[in-house]
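pasting for ref
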Amino acid sequence: MNEVFVSILKTSKAIQDFLKQFLREFSLTTTEFAVLEVLYEHGKQTVHEIAGNVYLAAGSMTYVIDKLVEKGYVMRSDCKEDRRVVHVEMAAEGQRLMNEIYPSYKKAIKVLFEEVTESEMNSTASALAKIEFKTK
């Protein structure tokens, strides 16, 4: 059991390092990329929705979104119905960047899994979901 736990930790770190290296060329952090990915795949979102999709507290998102606004990748807009709600959407420059990055990102992820069978992926996903459930 301990061997599996250590393997999960090592694999998680290796994947994070792989992603950091991939994103370094584009001057993005993994969290910034995660936000851009959510907006790229799902369109305009509230800060709360983005936070839920990238598994961060909504309060932590302010800094990340500020950085993406500074870089010209996203835009904020206030919700007309509820002033407490802020929407975030992809700016043209963010869309251009993701159009450039995303196909390479998907290819890189595919390479990581090329030696893993569909059955192994399903078993691993199922086991990890059970472990994640126990942590809550």
